[in-house]
Write a structure and sequence with these properties.
Elements lengths: L5 E8 L5 H7 L4 H9 L4 E9 L2 E8 L2 H8 L9 E3 L1 H13 L10 H15 L5 H20 L9 H12 L6 E5 L3 H10 L5 E5 L3 H10 L6 E5 L4 H5 L4 E4 L10 H5 L4 E5 L16 E4 L1 H7 L1 H6 L1 H52 L4 H31 L3 H11 L9 H4 L8 H14 L1
Parallel strand pairs: 5-6, 5-8, 6-7, 8-9, 9-10
Antiparallel strand pairs: 1-3, 1-4, 2-3
Length: 440
């Protein structure tokens, strides 16, 4: 990982794609996808971010075309959004801040970005470029939530689902069920606790449902737990069902849905837990993520002012990151340039001292002269490289890297071999001796 590449991204989200297209873009293993992307030619770093309403991948490559070619194997729909270096960075910042979420300002996305980072790091896919970008994105997310009101009120898909049930159906004197005891299921249960008479927690692992039940504290709500083996029977007496298992298959077959009583159902998963056929059943009112988006538009409007401030934060941190990248890029090239010059200087000084009969003081003068020559010769290129970085002149940067990063293990460059360091010119010798005599 050289740390010299550009970030290239691909995103499929609820903004551009339907629920079916999102389901088609779903990947089975984030870690395996990161590993596969890292194996693509020219890819130095990789990151995959997958949530209930987005599937995204980012790679670091020498140029945008190489990165986009690497991501071609990742894209499974024409709804995928292709992003270049700066667009990828800004998009990642917006995601972490919650501006790209179905529920604007939701808190869960920050943890999901951190989890994606840790997954990629475990695959040795995080290098200096993505490390800086993700770290800055997390800072943007934290600032957005501490410096603005972006996460006031409804702050997750789960809480939006409960809010929808409250406003559309009502929670008082009802029996509600939450299917799934993961992060979203737990959040939904916490919001329902104390608002409904009876709450049923159904999960594949009953022990996990019991653990969630133990964490709920409202005395007004009776909490029961169940497995998924006989889910139709478990849901039969329920007025409200919020499903959040994250299963790759339906948790209820169409026939089981027909056997339910009049039920208000909110499916907040992708892929769906409840089959699309349930949408057409008159005794069921089914909301999925696509329908939930229209409900959350009210929250989006309420947070418009906060979102404007978050955009300012994104602009600030975006400029800082680009400056950071530019400084590192220039420093890397300048360091490489000086290292090459220092190696050549050291080799030639060793040759000169071996051939010339200089005492310690004379050697010190020669070394000082060599240092001065190197510094003077490289002063102009150093300034030019810093200017090139500030002006986004990456062509000059990459050219300098190629010029000043020779494979020194195979010997010095040809122009060095052609130079004759067997003798030091008499004029230089005389100047050195004169200087030494003056010091005496």
């Amino acid at each position: 990982m050289t740390g010299r590449g550009l970030i290239v991204g691909s995103s499929v989200s609820h903004r551009e794609a339907s629920l079916e297209q999102l389901e088609a873009a779903t990947i089975e293993s984030d870690a395996a996808t990161v590993e596969a992307l890292l194996a693509e030619p020219g890819v130095d770093e990789a990151l995959v971010l997958q949530t209930c309403n987005r599937v995204e991948a980012y790679v670091v490559a020498a140029d945008e075309q190489v990165g986009q070619e690497a991501l071609d194997s990742f894209r499974t729909t024409t709804k995928a959004r292709e992003m270049g270096h700066e667009e990828s960075i800004r998009h990642l910042f917006r995601v972490a801040a919650g501006l790209e979420s179905l529920v604007v300002g939701e808190d869960q996305i920050l943890g999901q970005v951190r989890e994606a980072y840790e997954t990629a790091r475990a695959e040795n896919a995080i290098g200096p470029v993505l490390d800086d970008a993700v770290s800055k994105a997390l800072r943007v997310g934290e600032r957005a939530r501490t410096e603005t009101a972006i996460n006031d009120g409804v702050v997750s898909v789960a809480s939006a689902a409960v809010k929808l049930a409250e406003e559309t159906h009502g929670l008082a004197d009802t029996t509600a069920a939450v299917v799934g005891a993961g992060e979203m299921g737990s959040l939904a249960a916490e919001h329902l606790d104390g608002a409904v008479d009876r709450l049923v927690l159904a999960n594949r692992t009953v022990e996990r449902a019991e653990h969630l039940a133990d964490s709920l504290e409202a005395a007004e709500t009776t909490v029961d737990v169940a497995g998924l083996d006989d889910l139709p029977t478990t849901l039969a007496p329920c007025d409200i069902v919020i499903s959040a298992t994250g299963s790759t298959d339906w948790v209820l077959e169409p026939a089981a849905c027909r056997g339910l009583e009049e039920t208000f159902v909110v499916d907040i998963t992708r892929p769906r837990d409840i089959p699309p056929a349930a949408d057409e059943m008159e005794h069921l009112r089914v909301y999925d993520l696509d329908k939930l988006e229209t409900v959350t538009e009210k929250t989006r409007q309420m947070r418009h002012e906060a979102a404007t401030r978050v955009e300012d934060i994104i602009d600030e941190e975006f400029d800082r990151l680009l400056t950071q990248y530019k400084r590192k890029r220039a420093d890397t090239v300048i360091s490489t340039m000086y290292e090459s010059a220092e190696r050549i200087k050291a080799n030639e000084l060793e040759t000169a001292f071996r051939e010339a009969d200089f005492d310690a003081e004379q050697q010190a003068v020669v070394e000082a002269m060599a240092d001065a020559i190197v510094n003077q010769l490289l002063a102009a290129p150093t300034n030019s490289l810093r200017d090139a970085a500030e002006d986004d002149d990456w062509s000059t940067i990459h050219t300098a890297l190629q010029l000043f990063d020779p494979n020194l293990e195979d010997g010095p460059p040809a122009f060095v071999e052609e130079m004759d360091f067997e003798e030091i010119p008499e004029g230089v010798k005389q100047q050195l001796l004169t200087g030494l005599e003056a010091d005496d």
